[in-house]
Amino acid sequence: MHLSIRHETLYRYSQPQAYSIEQLHLTPRAEPQQQVLSWHIATPGHCAAYVDAYGNASHMLTLNAPHTAVRILVEGIVATVPLPGGRLQAHDSLPPLIFTVPTRLTQPTTALADVAA
Length: 117
What we know:
- By secondary structure, this protein is mainly β.
- The chain has one helix at residues 110-116; strands spanning 2-17, 20-24, 34-42, 46-51, 57-63, 67-80.
- The radius of gyration is 19 Å and the shape is flat.
- It starts with a strand and ends with a helix.
- 0% of the residues are buried.
């Protein structure tokens, strides 16, 4: 099955902005069950492609001129195939439990722990 995708993101600011930077995660991954046949991202400013730590195609959008809005338009075609047994066959390089490991940045404050209790 071919999916025709069109997505628009529009930010409007109440005051002119001199500078904006955004990480865009708007590109489907190439997976055994889907293939990106065509894909285009239209943005103002400078848009640089990169692959994040999880293998996702991403973009960094930077606007260095005064602006009151940012319009991002994404269009493309993705071919999909039926899933075996109706389920994704997960072959992630990281097990899900890795996201439960506490770090210095994820330790709750005393106030937050009190609210959770």
